[in-house]
Amino acid sequence: MDTMDNLDAEKVIGIDTEGMPHFHSVKEQVALIQVASSTAVYLIDVIALKKVLDEKQWLTFFEIILFSDDVVTIGYDFNNDLRFLTSTFPCLSEYLPRISNVFCLYRLLSEVLLNPEACEVVFGSKTFAINLNLNEVTKLFLGIELDKSERIGNWAQRPLRLEQKRYAALDAYALIGCFRVISKRLNKLKSASILDSLKHAALMSPASNNSRPDDLNVTTKPETYEEFLSHVLDVSLEVQATKPVGTKPRTVNDTKFALDSMLFGLGKWIRICGFETKHISDRVRLIKFCEENPEFYAVSAGKAFKEIRRCLPPHQVLCVPINTQDSRSNSRQFAHLMRQLKIVINEENMYSRCVRCNKKSFCRVPKLVAKALFYTKVLFLGIDWVGISRDHVNSVLEELFDHAIKEDEFPYNGEIPEGQYAISSNEKPIICRCKDCEVDITNQLLDFGDEGAIELSMPVNSKEPFDEEFQFRACLFCGKVQYR
Questions:
Q1: What is the pTM of this model?
Q2: 3'-5' exonuclease domain location, by residue (predicted)?
Q3: Distance CA 146, CA 148 (A)
Q4: Which of 39, 54, 189, 413 has its CA 20 to 30 A from that of 372?
Q5: Quick check: 191 and 171 in contact, CB under 8 A?
Q6: How far is CA 423 from the centre of its chain?
Q7: Which residues contact 156 (CB under 8 A, 6 or more apart)?
Q8: Mind listing the pLDDT tens digit of every residue in the chain (484 residues)?
Q9: Cβ atoms of 456 and 481 closer than 8 Å
């Protein structure tokens, strides 16, 4: 009870947990809770106290460290700690919607790295590369190196060794020290909206609470292509305007990326921007690939970044911060890379490379031809949720034939103009002759030369693209149809 009284009087506390080894429990279980105040660190022996404290007493303790409006609680990658705590104390789950004033330092720093102004006041540069584990962060802001060798110790064994106690205590106490240094630097920011954005990014809130102020940079709405494009084009103008005199910025022609499995989502968007991008899930293979192909930048995040950086030249390894709470993180992560490498892009670069196979060779597919491919494929596969019937398909095919070039309308040189097509017969298979290829609607094939036909891959998730002014293209290597 004295511990709870002391903590209740604190304004800022740091919290960390240590879990039991998996061979002690099938479920994730907390063995130790470390709570740091400004003057002391309390090591809460969960294994021992669960035998003597009842549920009500535990909830009183959590009321102070998780649900109090008067205490600011600092954690690091705190989602993991919450998962361990709710697994150990199932009664906590129903109270989580009341979580209050709990800040995740990992989320805060991830957001800082993605914001140039905040990054400059916290790290001294608008672009900064750091592996955001607590040891690296503590070393940077406090000049203290944590002994991580104790992390994998047996935290279920009693009594704890002195080295374990020191490690556990310092982990929690370092959170308060880092938070104070970072907060002091952030107070130099002139923009209140950026400060609000950082606060909301770091603030732990229940998953059911999606309400956020409209003007904040943190959002739960999916990022659209238009939003992504607008952001990266703005950053491109910024890079162009701030590059050192006499230097040339990088472009899609001289910049290549190899990404690990944590960043495949980002890799897709980088390909959309026209950059040659390799997705390599195995870390050892990624390192070997970059050793053999030094023109590629290895891009990673978190712990993987540190391991990759040990094996490759420092200039070849890039780290991007991850903020899982912001669905617009793809454009912000790529903007982070653009600023680091001084990259500029333009709208013509977008979709200049196949997002599936990474190749850069396409042929134009007229919109009505792509529409016929889509409708016939949906009907063939029986995908009823798209809302396409046989009557819809017949109507689309009728439209396809009505707009085809007639033989007597061909230009004098016999070439079919860009964006148009001809159909030589009303019989199946329905083959559309386009400017650079032939498209077999019936069999979903593309023929563009002497190599033989390849199977087309038409996305079947939505018919909305055909209501917009999109251009459709097919990759000549893998057959994927994409639009822009």
A1: 0.75
A2: 1-187
A3: 6
A4: 413
A5: no
A6: 44
A7: 20, 21, 24, 31, 47
A8: 566 666 667 889 999 999 988 655 567 899 999 999 989 999 999 999 999 999 999 999 999 999 999 999 999 999 999 999 999 999 999 999 999 999 999 999 999 999 999 999 999 998 888 888 899 999 999 999 887 777 778 899 999 999 999 999 999 999 999 999 999 999 999 999 999 999 999 999 764 344 333 333 444 567 888 899 999 999 999 999 988 888 899 999 999 999 998 898 899 999 999 999 999 999 999 999 999 999 999 999 877 888 898 999 999 999 998 765 565 689 999 999 999 999 999 999 999 999 899 999 999 999 999 999 999 999 999 888 888 999 999 999 999 999 999 766 666 566 888 889 999 777 889 999 998 899 999 999 999 877 789 999 988 777 778 888 788 999 999 999 988 7
A9: yes
Tokens of 196: 């609000």
- The amino acid sitting at 393 is V
